[in-house]
Amino acid sequence: METRRIDNRFSRILVQYAFIVVQALPALVPVTGTKTRRNANMTRQDHQENSGEATISGVESDEKAARPDPLFNQSLEKGLEVLRAFSAVHRTLTLAELAGLTGMTKSSAQRTVHTLETLGYVAKHPQTRRFRLTPKVMEIGYNYLCADALIQVASPYLSQLANASGETANLTEPVGLEMVYVAQLMTSKYIPVLTPVGMRIPMYCTSSGRAYLSTLPDDEVMAMLEDSARVARTPATLTDVAAIFETVVACRKVGYACNNEELFLGDMGVGAAIVNSQGQAVGAVHVSPPASRWSMAEAQKKLAPMVIECAWAISRSIAH
């Protein structure tokens, strides 16, 4: 089907970045067998020819496993840590504050910030001398939005869901133990909580997260729930692993998951998973009916079928 460009209105994003971890290159295998003194510059083949045998020791295997990844770029890591230090709580930061939040020395933080400032991703206020992010950081996240085929395929279905339900329709994708908003179709109706594109929400207490978890094996679900912080965001938040797991199991039976003011007071959620042709979940779609307009029973009766239909249509349309 014809894909559509995502409207720039929905391109507010702070995307978390991940690195490819490359295994360390194998070291030369130590040898035993001959008592003849050898030159330190001899090759492994020379050793084998002189000694007649070579063995790999368990000690060497342990040392290899403990060695840091030689291809991992720590300077790049520091740069991303500085960018991630800024948030709604830390809109502007001093050099000392950046060093403290990232765990860097002040000199290392200074070099990193200077590089980001030179590249245009960070700017310094002329009066306060505090650093802040610039709009240029948006280009990295926006490139992801443009390249993500799921967003383009889902866009018309999200629009249909928003029009039919009268509520904001959202598309999220998994990042670790969280779901990140990658697309959102808003309506003219009031919503109590702003959840812009790029915002991350925990899986354990959200409808989209539980819907995604429902597609995974039980042992994997339990492991992810155990690893989650499971903070009580509101008095209604489920934090017990067994209780949360029951909601995941229930989602498998009915095809959708719910969140009844567990993340934000006054905000509910009804979500369903999106799967590819192999049956693997790649994201979730959900609506966020406010408690001021809906009861959970009404949302389950009227909104859940729409959410399921939307998720099914997107799943059927994506090609992998």
In short:
The chain is 41% helix and 15% strand.
Briefly note the CATH topology name of the largest domain. Beta-Lactamase
Radius of gyration: 25 Å
Distance between the termini: 14 Å
- Give the percentage of residues in beta strands: 15-25%
Could you tell me the number of beta strands?
8
Shape: globular
Tell me the series of helices and strands, N- to C-terminal: HHHHHEEHHEEEHHHEEEH
Average of pLDDT: 84
Which stretches of 5+ consecutive residues score pLDDT under 50?
1-57
CATH architecture of the largest domain: 2-Layer Sandwich
Give the strand order, joined by hyphens, for the main sheet: 5-4-3-8-7-6
Q: Roughly how much helix do the residues carry, as a percent range?
A: 40-55%
Q: How is the topology of this model organized?
A:
Layout: H1 44-51, H2 58-66, H3 74-85, H4 95-102, H5 106-119, E1 122-124, E2 131-133, H6 138-147, H7 149-165, E3 169-175, E4 178-185, E5 200-202, H8 207-213, H9 218-227, H10 241-254, E6 257-264, E7 267-275, E8 281-287, H11 296-317
Antiparallel strand pairs: 1-2, 3-4, 3-8, 4-5, 6-7, 7-8
Helix pairs in contact: 3-5, 4-5, 7-11
